Amino acid sequence: MNKYNKNFTIFTLGLLISGLGTQIYNFAIGLYVLKITGSSVNFSLTLIFSMLPQIILSPIAGNIADKISRKKMLVTMDYLCGLTLIIVYFFSKTNSLSLILIYFTSFLLSSFNAFFMVNIESCIPNLVTKDKILKLNSIYSMIISLVRIAGPLLGGVCFGFFSIYSIILFNAISFIFSATLELFFDIEKREIIKDKQTSFFYNLKEGLSYFVNNKILFYITIYAMLVNFFSVNLSIALPYYCLEILKIDSSLFGFVQMGLPLGMVISSFLIALSKKDNKAILKTTILMIIVIGFLHIILSINMISNLNINLKVLIIFIILLMIGFSLGFVDIPINTIIQNIIHDNYRGRILGIITSFSRIITPISIFIFGLLVDNFEVYYTIIISAIAFFILAALIKSNKKLRTT
After folding, report:
1. In the prediction, which pLDDT does 23 show?
2. Please, which residues have CB within 8 angstroms of residue 402's CB and are 6 or more apart in sequence?
3. What secondary structure, in 3-state letters, does 106-154 show?
4. Quick one: pLDDT at residue 403?
C-alpha cells in the first residue's frame, strides 16, 4: 500500500469511528440533560457551550496550524478528547454527572474539536495527490452525513440500553483509537516560513490580507457562505410547518429530516466515483444551485396545496433528499477549490477565519429566518431562499475570474 492509499484509509476509518462516537455521545447527553432537568433551556445551553469555542478559537487554531506540525496537532487533540472523557467517566462514577460538569465537558470537547477541524481540513491536500483531493473531500462529506443519520438513531438505542457512563467511555475509546490511527499518517514535512513578527494579531492580519487580496478565494467563500445562509432557512421553516401546521408526530418529522443528509451521502458517493475534472464539476455546481432554487419553489407550492397530509410529508422528504443531493455537488467542489488555491503556509489561518465566519453567520441566519417565519406565511420564506439561489447561480456564472480558474 503506497502512502497516499494508507493516508486515505486512516483518514476514512478514524473519522468514521470518532465521528460516530461523538454523534452518539452528543445525542445521548442531550437526552440525559432533558431527562434530569425536563428543561429545553438547559439543553440549549449544552448546544451553546458546544458552539462558542468554534467561533472564538477557529482563527487561533488556524494560526497554530500554519506554525507547527498538523499531524501532531490532530493526534494531540484526539488524545485530549479521549483523556477528558476518561476523567469525566471516573469522576462522575464516584461523584455525579452534574449539569456543570456536562457544560464544562461540552466546552472542552468543542475547544479541542475547533483545533482538530481546522487542522484536518488544512491537512487534506497534504494527505493525497492533487487529483485525489476532490475524492477525499467527498468521502469526508459522506462520512459526516452518515454519522449525522446513524448517530441519533444509535444514540437513542444506546441511551435506552446502556448507562450514560458507558456511552461516555465508548466515545473516549473512539477518540483514542482515532488518535492512534493518525500516528501512522505519512505526511511530508512542510517548510514553515518563520515570520519576523509572530504575534497572533499580526498573523491574523496577514491571513485576512491574503484572503481579501486573493479575489477568487474571496468571491467563492462569500458565495459558499451565502448558499449556507439561505440553506439554514429549511431548519427553521420546516420544523414549524411540519410540527405546528401539519401537526405530524415528532418521530415522523425525524424521519423527514433524514432526507437532507441521505441526499448528501448519495452525491458524495457519486463524486468520489466521478472521473470528471474540476472544471466540469464546477459547471455541475452552478447547475445544482439552480436546481436547489427550483426545489424550494416546489416545496412552497406543496405547502399551499390541498394534498393529503401524508402525501405532503412524503413530498417534503423527497425534496429534502434532492436538496441534500444537490448541496453535495455545491459544498464538496467549493471546499476542494478553496483548499487548492490557498498556499500551504496560509491554509490553516484562512480556513480558521472561514470557519469562524461560518459559525457566526449560522445563528444570524437562524434569527432572521425565525423572525420571518413568525411574521409571514412559511412558504414566503421558502420563496425568498429560492430567489436567492437563482441570483447566486447567476453571479457565479458571470464571474470571469472564477470561470477561468
Report:
1. 85
2. 216, 219, 220, 282, 396
3. HHHHHHHHHHHHHHHHHHHHHHCCHHHHHHHHHHHHHHHHHHHHHHHHH
4. 60
Could you write out the DSSP letters of every residue in 264-285? Answer: HHHHHHHHHH----HHHHHHHH
Say what the pLDDT of residue 144 is: 86
The answer to which of 14-18, 56-60, 78-82, 199-203 has the lowest mean pLDDT is: 199-203
Q: Which residues of 195-230 are buried (b: 16+ CB within 10 A; e: fewer)?
A: eeeeeeeebbebbeebbeebeebebbbebbbbbbbb
Say how far apart CA 104 and CA 10 lie, in whole Å. 30
pLDDT of residue 42: 66
DSSP 57-86: HHHHHHHHHTTS-HHHHHHHHHHHHHHHHH
Q: 110: pLDDT confidence band, cut at 50, 70 and 90?
A: confident
Quick one: cell of 349?
489561518
Percentage of the chain lying above the pLDDT 70 cut? 90
Phi and psi dihedrals of 343, rounded to 5? -60, 145
The rounded distance, in Å, linking the Cα atoms of 216 and 195 is 25
- CA triple 273-261-74, angle to 5 deg: 75
The answer to whether residues 330 and 288 touch, using CB atoms and an 8 Å cutoff, is: yes
Angle at 318 between CA 315 and CA 321, to 5 degrees: 150
**Contact status, residue 377 vs residue 159, Cβ threshold 8 Å:** no
The neighbour count for residue 311, using CB atoms within 10 Å, is: 11
| Residue 287 CA: distances (Å) to CA of 226, 280, 329, 394 | 16, 11, 9, 10
Q: Could you give the CA distance from residue 199 to residue 79 in angstroms, rounded to a whole number? A: 27
Residue 245 CA to residue 301 CA, distance in Å, equals 15
The distance of Cα 39 from the centroid of its chain, to the nearest Å, equals 27
For residue 236, give the C-alpha cell: 427553521
